[in-house]
């Protein structure tokens, strides 16, 4: 095996895809920490073996942003958190974890030929995710499935049978699947012909997302597709309306037929309240986060109380949503800072998309898909989950973003030289 940039990128993605949750031994939170340590060790070892190449302008920019965010997080916590503990440290180091995965595409860049081969490999990982998900229907193979499940076979059947690949949780898996849906939607919107196997891949991705029964994933993906449908050339295609009609009829048929008998469908419908007007525990937890965020914000506007893990643990078991996390810990100022960073990421993606729109449809679609992931978290998914901070979605998102950012810096450097 040749130890080149393509090989290194493949090995990183294999580490992300194959790393187990081990719910009884580690669990997703601890497994994520171990994954980050292994990723750091892998990058460090490869730096010793192979001299990297990277853009100095990128390094200056990202280290400056990371430094500012970490300084703000630490200063806010020192000023307002009553009792700092060791467990508060990960909150301050979070930007460095993002940077670890963002750097990989810069340290080991792929040329045009490598990118084509890499995406073929990337689709093979997708197939592997589907196979692992389908093993929930084969009881003899449940020990394999349990390696990658946040809630294993001895947990509630409602959650075990929801597809999640090797991502641990259905919502995380749906975020991963949405990349492929957005990617191929870009081709469809721009009237770039799709091959039969590509249509099959899109159908499988949609089906897998439905079988994940992730409310956040389904609502955010369909919502962003709706925006993309209106903002791109898809709205001018008659085929679009045929597909939308078919999708609408199928969704209505599923909800009408199975809403009373199918527990997972009822789980989705309970987001909007049950017959007695109450919501399920998951939705209620998000509402509790909003109330807690408002309480903290009213005390120190536009700031909050910092990491504050000990007190928060006595108030709420876990903070799950993107907006809940930033408002409760870092206040409006911290949320605005992160949203500005996300906006810069989104701008870079749209810039790369426009640049490659006519010359390289694959690169354009890749940038378009990552832009949709950013929009998905900020506009919709963020109210349900801090989706780009979770177990495997964190490395997935920042690796994908790193590829687009590398293209952006390449494009802008070329333009400056010309």
Automatic annotation (TrEMBL):
InterPro entries per the UniProt record, alphabetical: O-antigen_ligase-rel_domated (IPR007016), WaaL-like (IPR051533)
UniProt membrane topology term: Multi-pass membrane protein
Entry's transmembrane regions: 37-53, 60-80, 92-110, 122-145, 173-189, 196-212, 218-234, 241-259, 330-353, 365-387, 393-411
Compartments in which it is found: Membrane
Keyword line: Membrane, Transmembrane, Transmembrane helix
Gene Ontology cellular component list: membrane
Domain O-antigen ligase-related: 201-302
Record-linked PANTHER family: LIPOPOLYSACCHARIDE BIOSYNTHESIS PROTEIN PA4999-RELATED (PTHR37422:SF13), TEICHURONIC ACID BIOSYNTHESIS PROTEIN TUAE (PTHR37422)
Name of the featured protein: O-antigen ligase-related domain-containing protein
């Amino acid at each position: 095996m040749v130890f080149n940039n393509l090989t290194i990128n493949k090995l990183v993605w294999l580490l992300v895809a194959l790393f187990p949750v081990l719910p009884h031994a580690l669990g997703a939170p601890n497994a994520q920490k171990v994954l980050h340590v292994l990723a750091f060790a892998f990058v460090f070892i490869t730096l010793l073996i192979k001299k990297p190449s990277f853009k100095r302008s990128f390094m200056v920019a990202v280290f400056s942003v990371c430094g500012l965010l970490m300084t703000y997080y630490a200063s806010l916590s020192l000023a307002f958190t009553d009792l700092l503990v060791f467990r508060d440290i990960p909150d301050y180091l979070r930007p460095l974890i993002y940077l670890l995965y963002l750097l990989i595409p810069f340290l080991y860049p792929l040329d045009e030929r490598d990118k084509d081969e890499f995406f073929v490999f990337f689709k093979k990982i997708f197939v592997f995710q589907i196979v692992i998900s389908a093993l929930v229907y084969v009881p003899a193979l449940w020990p394999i499935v349990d390696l990658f499940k946040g809630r294993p076979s001895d947990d509630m059947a409602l959650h075990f049978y929801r597809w999640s690949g090797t991502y641990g949780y259905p919502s995380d898996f749906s975020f991963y699947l949405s990349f492929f849906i957005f990617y191929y939607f870009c081709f469809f919107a721009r009237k770039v012909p799709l091959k039969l196997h590509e249509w099959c891949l899109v159908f499988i991705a949609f089906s897998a997302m439905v079988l994940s029964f992730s409310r956040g994933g389904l609502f955010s993906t369909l919502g962003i597709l709706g925006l993309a449908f209106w903002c791109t050339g898809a709205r001018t295609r008659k085929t679009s309306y045929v597909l939308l009609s078919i999708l609408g009829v199928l969704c209505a048929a599923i909800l009408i037929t199975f809403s009373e008998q199918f527990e997972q469908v009822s789980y989705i419908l309970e987001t909007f309240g049950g017959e007695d007007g109450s919501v399920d525990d998951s939705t209620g937890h998000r509402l509790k986060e909003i109330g807690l965020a408002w309480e903290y914000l009213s005390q120190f506007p536009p700031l909050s109380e910092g990491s504050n893990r000990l007190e928060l643990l006595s108030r709420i078991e876990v903070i799950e949503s993107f907006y809940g996390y930033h408002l409760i810990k870092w206040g409006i100022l911290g949320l605005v800072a992160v949203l500005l960073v996300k906006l810069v990421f989104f701008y870079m993606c749209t810039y790369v998309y426009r640049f490659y729109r006519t010359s390289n449809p694959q690169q354009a679609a890749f940038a378009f898909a990552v832009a949709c992931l950013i929009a998905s978290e900020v506009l919709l998914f963020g109210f349900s989950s801090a989706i780009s901070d979770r177990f495997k979605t964190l490395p997935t998102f920042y690796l994908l973003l790193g590829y687009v950012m590398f293209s952006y810096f390449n494009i802008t450097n070329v333009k400056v030289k010309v």
